[in-house]
Structures are given as C-alpha cells and as structure tokens.
Design a protein that fits this description.
With 263 residues, the protein is of the alpha/beta class. It is globular.
Length: 263
C-alpha cells in the first residue's frame, strides 16, 4: 500500500465487536478482539468452527462495516476513509481468497482471472494479457480457455488465487484456501502464499490444518469471538517447580559417597 511505512501497523483492531441477530437471538460473533498486524507478517488464524474467523476476515477486508470498536488500516481509522476510497482499496490493495472460490461459471478461466482488472477500468485486451501472465505463473496457461467445470478442485483453487492476485494486492486475505484439497495441492498453494510473503506482502490466512501453520510467521487461535493465543506474544517461561541441585553440592555428595564406599 502506498502509504504503508514499516512502522505503521497495516491493521490495528481495538475492542472489535460484531453482533448478529436481535433480542434473545442476539450473539456476539466477535467479542472484543485486539489485534495488531505489521506490514509483511504472515498470520495464520485457527480456531473451532463458529469462533468468528470469517467474520474477522470480512471486517479486515472492508466487506463488513457494521461493527463496534476501532479499526485502523495503515494508520487511518476506517471510519474516516470515504466509501469511494474503501472501494478502491478493496479492488486494488486487498486480495481475497474465499472459502468457496466464486468463479463465474459462464466465463472461461482467463476471463475469470481478468475480471478484477476489468472492474478497475483496465481495457479488455490489456487485462487478458496480464491475466495470461499470472496464469503462466500458476502453471495454468494451458487451461486458459477451459470453463471452470472442466478443471479439478485444485486447479480451480489456483485460478481463484491467481484472480485474487491479478491486481498485485499487498494484503492477502485467505479463508481456508486449502479447504478440501489433498496434501500435495495444499502445499502447492502454501508455497505460493509463502512466495508472496517473502517479497513483503501481508498475508492473513484462516486454516484448520495445523501442519500448514509452519508457513506462517505468527499463529493466532480464536475462541468464542476472542483471541485466545498469539504466538508473537510469547508466554513468560514458568519457574521450575523443583530446584535443580547445584553442581558443586552434587559433586560433594558424590565424593562423600565414594569415600563411604571405600571405607
Ligand atoms: N450472517 C450471519 N447471521 C447470523 N449469525 C452469523 C452470521 N454470520 C456468522 N454468524 C455467526 O457468528 C459466529 C461466527 O461465525 P464465523 O465468523 O463464520 O465463524 P468461523 O469462520 O470461525 O467458523 C457463528 O456463531 C455464526 O453462526
Ligand atoms: Mg469460516
């Protein structure tokens, strides 16, 4: 993002709350989330189903504006960013990889990938050129003119990721990007996210798979709408319950023991 400096956190949430329903049915999907994410972090978010992960990602991605608490994006309160500017940020600076990939079934692969560019005003020819380039990167160039239903689950997922990245976003939000994929396809996608992280992009990824958190630089777990654990805030080491005998004492005891034996 243009105004991002290394020091300003990309995302800063304070006491974030999100409520669904009314009256007796009212429930907090987010119940006071405090979270600061620095530029270039790769954050993995884990937690049981229903704990608020998708709700959190939607708010971070400016897709949901009805919440309580503070959200600063690049040091700027989101409340103070105009709707137009927010739309600009959504289309140019944030890449979304959704749980269900939402490819448009009647468009072929290259058109699907080019879609975000077409939306942001790039001409059709230019957007197809850029889409073709990114599809090459994802080893999908031979599938450009296939329809979505002709691809495997893993290929569709790679198309969805290519589409999320076609605008070169600096923040990538991924909601279980490896969803129902086999281990090999999952690792291909994780390698791609890791490569994006290595060139300085910020990645926030929800996952159920603990094995995949090894790609992340930080792991957060959520529980009941709150942050439960955060690997960056290292817990203080516990004091050992039993003091280890000092080496000298042990040595003395040993020599005494030996002497007794000799006697
Ligand atoms: N549109 C909605 N209307 C009512 N409740 C919702 C809605 N979206 C999510 N919730 C509730 O908010 C909670 C958090 O949901 P979600 O963020 O989808 O959890 P997760 O992604 O961690 O599985 C759940 O209890 C869910 O039922
Ligand atoms: Mg979810």
């Amino acid at each position: 993002m243009a105004i991002t400096t290394k020091k300003t956190p990309v995302i800063k949430l304070r006491d974030l709350k999100k409520r669904f329903g009314i009256g007796d049915a009212e429930a907090y999907a987010l119940d006071g989330v405090d979270l600061t994410i620095k530029n270039g972090e790769f954050v993995a978010i884990m937690g049981p189903s229903g704990c608020g992960k998708t709700t959190l990602l939607n708010i971070i991605g400016l897709l949901d504006r009805s919440y309580f608490g503070q959200y600063e994006l690049d040091g700027k309160p989101v409340d103070s960013i105009s709707r137009r500017k927010q739309a600009f940020i959504r289309s140019k600076q944030i890449g979304y990889i959704f749980q269900n990939f939402n490819l448009v079934p009647r468009l072929n692969i290259i058109e699907n990938v080019a879609l975000p560019l077409t939306y942001s005003g790039v001409t059709r020819v230019n957007s197809l050129i850029v889409a073709s380039d990114i599809l090459k990167l994802f080893h999908l160039n031979e599938r450009e003119y296939y329809m979505p239903h002709q691809l495997s689950g893993g290929q569709i997922q790679r198309v969805a990721i290519a589409r999320a990245l076609v605008n070169k976003p600096t923040i990538i939000l991924a909601d279980e990007p490896t969803g129902n994929l086999d281990s090999r396809s999952s690792h291909i996608i994780m390698e791609e996210l890791a490569a994006l992280h290595s060139v300085g992009n910020t990645i926030i990824m929800v996952t159920h798979n603990a094995n995949l958190t090894t790609y992340a630089s930080r792991v957060i777990t959520m529980l009941d709408g709150k942050i439960d654990t955060d690997s960056r805030e290292m817990p203080k080491p516990e004091k050992p319950k039993h003091k280890r005998p000092k080496a000298k004492k042990t040595k003395k005891k040993l020599t005494a023991k030996l002497k007794r034996k000799k006697k």
